[in-house]
């Protein structure tokens, strides 16, 4: 076998074969993702409601007058609570309405602008004030932001009460009209 030159074997590939292999791989990955999503159940997140009345009773028992709704509308649930026993206290409640829209209450001794920046938006517009009934009846300042949030503000001796949220304005006003400092 003299004279026969042997070359090591090489796998001959073409550009078309490489593109074809890449397409097969992409189709296989897409099929896997689609099948996985079809067989997956969506995890619905639920938030357990907090016992806001117990928190109000504890704050009042420690000698702090905190604003709270006399009662929550049907289907609403409290999802967050905040309390710092200062004088005046820092108090907050976050709630979801029966339509899963957020509404919150904040009471503290801070500048209105700072509270709006933290709890609503850095860029709010002041609207015409509104008169709200209930135990905290009177004129409330109204602020809105570009995202559709509404905030009602009532400055009192020693603190500021902020009622805010993504719920429609009439819902925010309704919550403000339910506020009281009455003992539970």
Can you characterise this structure?
There is one protein chain. With 184 residues, this protein is α+β, with helices and mostly antiparallel strands. It has one domain: MucB/RseB, C-terminal domain (Phosphorylase Kinase, domain 1). The chain has 4 helices and 9 strands. The strands form 2 sheets. The protein has a 7-stranded antiparallel beta sheet, with helices on both faces. It has a two-stranded antiparallel ribbon with strand order 1-9. Strand 3 and strand 4 form a beta hairpin. The longest helix has 24 residues. It is elongated.
What is the CATH first-level class name? Alpha Beta
Radius of gyration, in Å, reads 30 Å
Reported by name, the CATH topology is Phosphorylase Kinase, domain 1
Content-based structural category: alpha+beta
Order of helices and strands: HHEEEEHEEEEHE
- Number of separate helices: 4
Strand proportion, as a percent range, falls in 25-35%
Shape descriptor reads elongated
Integer tally of domains:
1
In CATH, the architecture is 2-Layer Sandwich
Low-confidence stretches: none
Largest sheet: number of strands, sense, barrel closure: 7 strands, antiparallel
Measured as a percent range, the helix fraction is 25-40%
Strand order of the largest sheet: 2-3-4-8-7-6-5
Average of the residue pLDDT scores: 89
Q: CATH superfamily membership, which one? A: MucB/RseB, C-terminal domain
Report how far the terminal alpha carbons are from each other: 106 Å
Number of strands: 9
């Amino acid at each position: 076998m003299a004279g026969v030159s042997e070359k090591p074997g090489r796998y001959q590939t073409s550009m078309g074969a490489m593109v074809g292999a890449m397409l097969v791989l992409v189709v296989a990955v897409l099929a896997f993702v689609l099948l996985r999503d079809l067989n997956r159940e969506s995890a619905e997140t639920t938030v357990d409601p907090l016992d806001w009345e117990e928190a109000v009773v504890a704050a009042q028992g420690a000698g702090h007058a905190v604003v709270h709704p006399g009662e929550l509308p049907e289907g609403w649930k409290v999802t967050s609570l905040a309390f710092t026993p200062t004088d005046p206290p820092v108090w907050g409640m976050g709630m979801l309405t029966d339509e899963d829209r957020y509404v919150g209450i904040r009471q503290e001794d801070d500048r209105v602008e700072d509270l709006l920046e933290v709890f609503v938006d850095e860029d709010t517009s002041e609207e015409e004030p509104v008169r709200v009934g209930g135990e905290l009846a009177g004129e409330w300042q109204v602020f809105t932001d570009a995202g559709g949030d509404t905030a009602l503000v009532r400055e009192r001796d020693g603190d500021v009460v902020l009622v805010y949220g993504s719920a429609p304005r009439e819902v925010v006003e309704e919550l403000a009209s339910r506020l009281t400092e009455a003992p539970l």
